[in-house]
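Example A, followed by Example B.
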Amino acid sequence: MTIRVLLVDDQPLLRTGFRMILEAEGDIAVVGEAGDGQQALDQVRALQPDVVLMDIRMPRMDGVEATRRIAGPGRDGPAKVLVLTTFDLDEYVVEALRAGASGFLLKDVPAEELVQAIRVVAEGAAMLAPSVTRRLLDMYAGRLPSGDEAPPPSLGTLTEREVEVLKLVAKGLSNAEVAAELFVSETTVKTHVGHVLTKLGLRDRVQAAVFAYESGLVRPGGS
């Protein structure tokens, strides 16, 4: 199956470079380009891409708002969003993840990593390692709950084991590492992660990690 990709960046040269990389792959097709967030929304509606490669800082509408309208709460369209940023410490990255992005890439990402990330996201997974999510959340610890707030009611829908899995995912452990930690099979871990996402209404493990921090279940820099 061919993965349909929409390129969104206000720099034509970058879009050209990404297009050259992606169109060299037999299973990826660049179906369109956009120079700002508003154009991106129009193109998503018209072209129905599988993956949107989204710049953050653009005129008219930035990538965060565009991401929210494409993949945010209540949006059930097929498009997944990979956010592009010049710096891995971009202050808007956390907001983009909260808005529904499946992860983020640096603009100087090696070609093979860009291609692999698009394939992973197109399959419905998140390309952003939870360990990276944790690093970002540590940076913005002051913006997260103090820990004194009551936990969200949705946490009560999880079983004890599902809460354990959620904590480990938020700490940056892979499925294999979670399996080793809990002495269960990797398949069992995948099942638990799926249940967590369904019960909490989350799109992927990136959002699960964000939820764990925002709810106070896991503390930045702590356990």
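Example B, a separate protein, is given below in the same form.
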Amino acid sequence: MTFAARDLAKSSAFFIAIRRLATELTAMFDENPRLMSIFASHQRWLMAQLGLSLHYGRDPGDPAKGLYAGRFVANAVEHGIASRNTAAAFIQEMLAYRFARHSDNPPDNRMRPLEPTDVAVQSVVKWLYAHLAILDHLDGGARAAKLAADPALFARLQPAIAQGILESPEVRNPGETFNLFTWANSGGVVMDGFIAMIEDFDPDAPRTLIGPISSTDICQRYMISKTHLKRLMNKAAAMGSLGFETISGRNTLWLSQGFVEEYLIYQAEKFAIIDAVFHRETASAEPVKRLTAVP
């Protein structure tokens, strides 16, 4: 059975699960900061999903329907993800860092389709596997095992997942503070890092304590300048989304209830999209599952 986003967002079990995901995402960033920087801002993450969907969703019978620089740029503009210049620069960056390459077997000498390299694909497969494993943890399913047993399943899942993400207002625009962080370079992974630090969470509390943080450590780990990090933190503080209070003589970071709720809404909608696509591609339609919150 598939999960409903509204039920996931209300579940304490789901919060524990996404805190675990946040820890895994920051660890993935540590393993390959250059590659994972693609996912460190919402705009770049959406462009990566779009590019992969054009590649895996191509029609073998229509060579013009693959991943081409011009087609990618046009789609990025059409979906409101980026300007033509930003989308074109993203493609060039992916080629320069060898996360994408021109196909060795073009359908026509006049056409130059692009394709993701193995290292890029492996990273996104790992990202998807982590999400499926968390869904399995919530209901005892075997989604991650199915993906591991059938790697070709990723090619069937990815275009539909990307389409769901690109068409979801909750994923594209979950809230003002979330957008502040995720539309900034490395801001998304900084936010994941904050969520991963939460130890005690009360959804009814106006503030959630994170603990003391080191700006120097954050900047070094997530490849973000001190000036950029300070700007993000100051803007979020002005919005009432985070702040510091003195506990035992130390400045302790807190996140507002609204900030955490935005993160939860985003994650719940994303997980519901992934779950629905997985079941649609691997099994017959099943009823929506209602997840009961763990006390």
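On Example B: The two ends are 22 Å apart (CA to CA).
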